[in-house]
Amino acid sequence: MNRAAYLLSAVCCFLMGMLLVYLPWMRVWEHNFFLSRFPGLVRVLLHPALRGAVTGLGLLDILLAVGMIHRRPKSAHDARN
Question: Is this prediction's pTM over 0.70?
Answer without folding.
Answer: yes
